[in-house]
Recover the amino acids of this structure.
């Protein structure tokens, strides 16, 4: 699949990818922040994992933010939307419990990992700094996916509903960010 974007005057594909990734990381930070809040009374292991994931996503957001600043680029117009949407998604899925949290993480990370790979293919040999930023977060994103995928799906209902809905919403947010 070819990576396409509507670019502003003087903007490169690498600039746009970094903006969208930065906004997406803001969404991810807020998903984990809200999930942790919504399920604060649950087991310590779950709270600990959500805090670890949130810390990773904050570091990723910082990586993309610093690279955007180095380029003199503003954040994506979808940054705030991603934060609000991520918080709402995180809060609802946090209330639904462990299986919903895991299903959400798997769905989001599966889409994100595919997009990151597409971005690397499109930007290799074109924008080394963007490639470096993307490569620096891949292991964490894969770890989040893999750990969540190992979580027992105690609730059959929510994961079956959430995975396709969250995947579609994640795709839509990425598409929107690339077009704004």
């Amino acid at each position: 699949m070819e990576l396409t974007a509507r670019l502003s005057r003087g903007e490169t594909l690498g600039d746009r990818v970094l903006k969208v990734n930065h906004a997406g990381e803001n969404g991810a930070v807020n998903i984990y922040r809200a999930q942790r809040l919504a399920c604060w009374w649950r087991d310590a292991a779950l709270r600990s994992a959500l805090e670890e994931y949130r810390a990773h996503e904050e570091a990723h957001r910082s990586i993309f933010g610093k690279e955007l600043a180095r380029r003199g680029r503003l954040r994506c117009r979808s940054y705030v939307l991603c934060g609000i949407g991520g918080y709402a998604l995180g809060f609802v899925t946090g209330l639904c419990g462990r299986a919903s949290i895991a299903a959400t993480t798997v769905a989001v990370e599966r889409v994100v990992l595919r997009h990151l790979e597409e971005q690397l293919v499109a930007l290799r040999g074109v924008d080394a700094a963007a490639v470096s930023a993307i490569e620096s977060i891949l292991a964490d994103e894969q770890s989040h996916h893999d750990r969540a995928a190992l979580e027992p799906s105690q609730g059959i209902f929510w994961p079956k509903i959430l995975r396709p809905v969250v995947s579609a919403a994640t795709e839509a947010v990425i598409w929107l960010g690339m077009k704004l």
Summary: The first helix runs from residue 13 to 38. The mean pLDDT is 93. The domain at 13-179 is CATH 1.20.1260.10 (Ferritin). Helices lie at 13-38, 44-71, 79-96, 98-123, 128-149, 157-179.
